[in-house]
Design a protein that fits this description.
By secondary structure, the protein is α+β, with helices and mostly antiparallel strands. It has 2 domains: 3-130, dinb family like domain (Four Helix Bundle (Hemerythrin (Met), subunit A), Up-down Bundle), CATH 1.20.120.450; 140-239, Nonspecific Lipid-transfer Protein, Chain A (2-Layer Sandwich). Helices cover 47% and strands 13% of the residues. It has 7 helices and 7 strands. The protein is globular and about 50 Å long.
């Protein structure tokens, strides 16, 4: 996807988050156990301020992850101020310059994609807590699946030590937009390729639902997805994902 597509997705998700009714801040967020809506808004506000400081910082400068946030209803306006600052930063800086990323040094555009998908999922969380979530755009969802599998889940979020040494494979396939991935799992890690291939289990469905299942937002049985083969492999993988 283009940088502009990611910025558009970020802006649309931020519009949902900034429209949060302060009266709902104490409502529990089922998809983020232990959080209420206020916790969710503070989290995304902190993350977006952190990303803004990173892309604007000189190369190599360490940026603190958290800063003091207001409490109560003021958190919604605080989020909105930081959201505007992030979009401005991502649309004015040189996106080719190298910056810190938690997977190593990357061009600043790495943060455009990361913040887009962070906001999209958390906008869904907020809407799910207070009403009916809007569908996630299939193209954005497919790109989010790709980021999760190739950038986040495999390198950072999965402990594969409990899987069988013979190796297992999971085929992920979106049905409403192009997208296929094969995950080959072993105790040493996971290899992900973008291809059509038979796995021990297949997860198949609309990109939005597949994304939400992989992010642990929807249970397999509650999503509009199908599984084929040994879905125990998929369920065990999701159980050990630190999402």
């Amino acid at each position: 996807m283009l940088d502009a597509d990611h910025v558009a997705a970020l802006s649309a998700a931020n519009a949902i988050l900034r429209a949060t009714d302060p009266a709902t801040l104490d409502v529990a967020v089922p998809s983020c156990p232990g959080w209420d809506v206020g916790d969710l808004i503070e989290h995304i506000a902190q993350v977006q301020r952190w990303a803004t400081r990173i892309v604007l910082a000189p190369p190599g400068e360490k940026v603190p992850r958290r800063i003091e946030a207001p409490s109560g209803p003021a958190i919604v306006d605080w989020f909105a101020e930081g959201a505007d600052a992030l979009v401005e930063a991502l649309t004015t800086v040189d996106l080719d310059h190298d910056v810190y990323a938690f997977v190593g040094t990357r061009p600043a555009r790495w943060w455009v994609r990361r913040q887009a998908h962070e906001a999209v999922v958390h906008a869904w969380d907020r809407q799910h807590a207070t009403g009916t979530p809007d569908p996630i755009d299939p193209s954005i969802a497919s790109d989010g699946i790709d980021e999760l599998l190739t950038v986040l889940m495999v390198p950072r979020l999965i402990d594969t030590s409990g899987f069988a040494p013979a190796g297992e494979s999971i085929h992920v396939h979106t049905t409403d937009v192009e997208g296929e991935w094969l995950m080959r799992v072993s105790p040493d890690g996971i290899d992900v390729t973008r291809e059509h291939a038979k796995g021990d289990v297949a997860l198949r469905g609309p990109a939005g639902d597949v994304l939400l299942v992989l992010w642990g937002r929807l249970a397999i049985d509650d999503a509009e997805v199908d599984t084929f083969g040994s879905d125990d492999v998929l369920r065990r993988l999701l159980a050990v994902a630190n999402l």
